[in-house]
Amino acid sequence: MQASEFSNNVIPVSELPSLTTVPSEPISPAYRCLNLWLTSGIFGGVAAILVLVLIQPWFALLPPAPFIVSLCIGGVLFIGSWLFLYHFFADPLIRYSIREQDLVLFKGLLFKDVICQPILRIQHIDIQRGPFERMAGLATLKVYSAGGSLHTLAIPGLPADTAETIRQFVLNHSDLTQDEA
Amino acid sequence: MSESVSASASMTEGWQRASKWSVLHFLFEQLKHSVNLAFYAVPALLLGAHNNIPEELMPLLLLGLGVTFVVSGVLKYWFFQFTVSKTGIAIRSGVFDRTYTDLPFERIQNVKFDQPFYFRFNDMLVVTLDTAGSAKQEARFAGVTRDYAEAVKHTILQARKVLQTQAKDASDEEAVSSESDIADRVINRRSIKDLVLHGITNNRIWILLGAAAPFYDQGTNWVIEQMTALRPHIEQWFGSEAVTFWYVGVMTAMVAFGLLVIMALLSVGGSILMYYGYTLSKRDDKYIRRSGLINRQEVSMKHSRIQVFRMQQDWLDRLLKRVNLYFEQNVTGTQYQPEAKATNKLLVPSVTVAEAESLADDVFAQQHARHIQYTGAHVRYFWRLMFIVVLPLTLGVGSLTIGILGAYGVLLTLAFVGCASVVARACWKRWGLAHDDNYIYLRKGAFGVDYWCFPRSKLQQVALRTNIFMKKRRLVSLDLILASGRLTMPYLSEEVAYALADHSLAEIERDKPGWM
């Protein structure tokens, strides 16, 4: 497994493995693609429907209605384009690394997060694949600790087989059964 | 539950029923449920539905309701069956919806005793068995005698210990079992005076606010009546234009003062209601809290399960030199619970600083939460507060006061900015993080102060968060995630935060300490 190339099994304090210098891998580029398509599709679709409502010839909209609908179209397009831009720039920044003892996730465009989950503390792990993710051959790996559902470490946009490999690596890890009381 | 079942390992395989007294419990549960439902029904009833029900049918209706309750209580009792095996407890319950719950002993996290008021006269208990899993996976036995409850608890603890030490010799188990017979040792008591102090310093008003709602109207009516009665005298003495000022002034003062007094009284009442006869005791490796005026409650928490302690002091607590000490355990799987019922938090209300210190030492030996040197947050945290919170508020207050009062508004706005800045500065100054070989400490608050302390080995996850502005200054916020929740230290320098994260992670991953 490529993951075990990274070791953090060092004991001298001066040589402690540091989160600042962890080499990391990007998630699948298909994740950004998927998000961009979804954003364009959903917001574009809603906007298109609203435009159709506005220009259809069958019934006349009473005075304030056309204005409100146009406002909605503007709002939908505005939010959609911001989301598009966000995914365009932020998705490539999602990176992860699997170390011998923990999983690390890097993400964020304006707010940058580094989250480290020791394998010893993992309660359970699962792979989630929505319909669109399945279409794109992607999967989200979710790692649950006792810290509660708010602090679930989720690595999105992994190729399905990579996600499965990581899951197996974690499940086979010797530490996993240790914590169960 | 029949006494003869005294919890031994040789439990019968057959299904048995709980004590007949549990009918009482089911009855009151049903009643509570109906009262909750009634809240929704009241508006409908007020809107005229009651006009459709003839007056003379009302008693019949109520009687019918009562009979339904009793019948449903008895049915629930009849269909509640359980069996205890060597490995766990299984329960069948429900009249129409039959549910089957299987609780292996090792999954039972907590054994909680409650004594609702309707069991006080015969000193019976409701035993709740909590599991770590979902909130639905819990079992409640009502109408249990104290001795039997203790026996059940003993069986469960015993079974868990046996399971844990299965690999070891039988002689070991022997030792374990004799050990757990030691009686409780009370390590803290709270007197009425303490509870009064607790009521004053901690606003428990919301508990009783709901109950008092019908009386507000009467209260204000009374005040207005008095005012009107006095009105002629005032007019006589000061002239009619003074009356308006008098009304407004006196009303404001009275309402403010009255509310303060009422709130304090209610709060004291709430505190006594919840914590009357408070004892914190220790038995083996468990802390047990018992308290309550009407409903006696017992919550126990295993020492090793305690993730973090928190010494909380509001500004009033600091003046009175009191501390609220919380022990917190894991929250996974439990939904939000009101404070009095929460099993994941154990509160020792309004203890003195010295008592808090000694209790904290008992939980985490050699902690230095109150004496260690803390690393503060960067000054940019203060500026962030000023920018994000104080500035928008000032703009709001400024436009409002200047708009209404003109030039005088400027003075008010300035005063507001002054006060807000002082609060922001106090907030910023209070933040602090420290660590020693065993523990990590966090300090926060504004005029009050909260100390948090947890063993480094209890960490579940670490997150370092920053944004583009902080990144330039090499600052990060450090999230330390424990099984009891998240603790955050904002605006630390990158070196400090990463060093602490790296060290703590390495320690955990190397030594593999348990957290439960």
Describe the 3D structure.
- Chain A: It comes from Marisediminitalea aggregata.
- Chain A: It holds the Pfam family bPH_2.
- The complex is a heterodimer of chains A (181) and B (516).
- Chain A has 181 residues and is α+β, with helices and mostly antiparallel strands.
- In chain A, 40% of the residues lie in helices and 23% in strands.
- Chain A has a four-stranded antiparallel sheet with strand order 1-2-3-4, with no helix packed on it. In chain A, strands 5-6-7 form a three-stranded antiparallel sheet.
- Chain B is built from 13 helices and 21 strands.
- In chain B, the strands form four sheets. A seven-stranded antiparallel sheet of chain B has the order 7-6-5-11-10-9-8.
- Chains A and B meet through strand 4 of A and strand 19 and helix 13 of B.
Quick recap:
Chain A: Pfam families: bPH_2 (PF03703). The complex is a heterodimer of chains A (181) and B (516). By secondary structure, chain A is of the alpha+beta class.
